[in-house]
Amino acid sequence: MSRMATFGNDLYTGKRSFDFIGQFKYWMITSLVLVLLVLGGLAVRGLNMGIEFTGGSDFRIAGVANTDNFAERATDVVRDEGGEAAAPTVTLIGADVVRVQTQQLDERRTQDVTEGLANTFGVSTTDVSASVIGPSWGESVSRQALQALIVFLVLVALMLSVYFRTWKMSLAAMIALAHDVLITVGIYSIVGFEITPATMIGFLTILSYSLYDTVVVFDKVRENTAEAVATGRRTYSEATNHAINQTLVRSINTSVVALLPVACILVVGFWLLGPGTLLDLSLALFIGIAFGTYSSIFIAAPLLAWMREREPGMKQLRERVEARTQGTAPPVTGPQAVLAAAAPTSTGATTGGARAAAGSAAQVFGAGIPGMISPGTAGSGGGATALAERNGEAAADDANAGAPVEYTATGRPIHPSMRRAEPPRGRKGRGSKDRDKVVDRAPGKADKADKDGGQGLDKEQQDER
User: Any idea where the Protein export membrane protein SecD/SecF C-terminal domain is (predicted)?
Assistant: First the structure.
């Protein structure tokens, strides 16, 4: 368990990563091959629709003691009593119930088949139940299921478009959804499983589960890509790939937890109960959940990244990331760049060069920077005053030539006259907040305090002395 936790933590923090986006073409080729196979199966074999959709007669024999060769025995009875046109489907439900499905028979043939089955399996006619199902009921169920599916897809597409604020996420989710349902239906066609109303319910449940897993991945994709666009440190594909890795363990754990009980129901339905509603529902759920997890990881998110990378904004983001990686990012333009060049790089730097660079920056960016004047100011009105100001600032610059340059939080240099004064050594103010402030006292009091050995100071200052 600790290894799994460490593995998941490494995936979430980015220490370990799988390149899902980089292998996108291989995932798409795999999915296209599967889709072509299931489409071929649907075209060649079609779907094995249940009696609820096609109509017919259904016989169930309960309490069968001897089930040896039950299929052949029941088939012989139906062909003898029901006519050669009838093509029965015989299955065993549980341990002692035989189910026989035939084409729709009239009342006389239904009675003949009931008596023949009772005699063949050694039970009374009361243990044989016969029912006739018309095709109109199956058509009504199919129509209602199709209407519900269309309404569901429209509402889901609208919800995703509004929630994620982009139609491309909605389109990618719909493609993954169609992929899951198509492959599940194709497997039913290739293997020959019967389509029943319970199977239709399983198909609709697959839609919900697949969509749920995809939305969880997309929510993490939206969070990571928003940060990538804001910082310019990752491309859209890199942020999407990191989101898939972050949700990978969660997707696997959720799928395993969901598949385990469904697998138990599938085994119980197949080995103990036989064909029926429970088996039909669990089979559709098992196939759909497995492929729903696959599509949310390998289809939906990589397809979204492929579509978004073709947008002009994402192309510019990729160029920014590549320039940052190669160290060829465009230089910063603004007062900070010029002032950084004007700052002295050694104690031996002359102030004349700094003043010249500052004058150049003032010409380029204006006089909006503290301590920076334009060279042409002295030549305009009030030239004497401007010249005096320039000479005073030059003198201040010469006096502070050896002092380190301080900058504000926005990157602008602090003028020497605005720098924070350092307190005299050994002299501190009251409290921790005033520790950096200079203690000002009147000359007389200061002399008296020094003369008296600190008697003029308060108690705290005496303790400090």
Answer: 119-309
409 alpha-carbon distance from chain centroid: 36
Pick from 83, 104, 133: which residue ends a domain? 133
Burial of 454 (0-12, 13-18, 19+ CB in 10 A): middle
**Residues 276, 290: Cα–Cα separation, whole Å:** 22
Q: Report pLDDT digits (tens) over 347-357.
A: 444 444 444 44
Handedness of CA 273, 276, 282, 283 (dihedral sign): positive
Whether 348 is covered by a domain: the verdict is no
Instruction: Specify the number of domains making up the chain.
Output: 4
CB atoms within 10 A of CB 240: 28
| Residue 97 CA from chain centroid, whole number | 49
Range of the domain at 414: 333-343+358-367+407-419
Same domain, 168 and 291: yes
pLDDT digits (tens, 9 = 90+) for 51-110: 777 778 888 888 888 878 888 888 888 887 766 555 688 877 777 788 888 887 888 888
8 A C-beta contact, residue 284 and residue 185:
no
For helices 24-44 and 167-191, give the axis angle rounded to 10 degrees. 40
DSSP alpha helices (H): ranges in 309-410?
A: 312-326, 335-342, 351-365, 383-399
Q: What is the DSSP letter of 88?
A: -
Q: 369: pLDDT confidence band, cut at 50, 70 and 90?
A: very low
Residues 278 and 256 in one domain: yes
List pLDDT tens digits, range 399-445: 455 556 666 655 566 666 565 555 555 554 454 444 444 444 444 44
Q: Are 101 and 230 members of one domain?
A: no
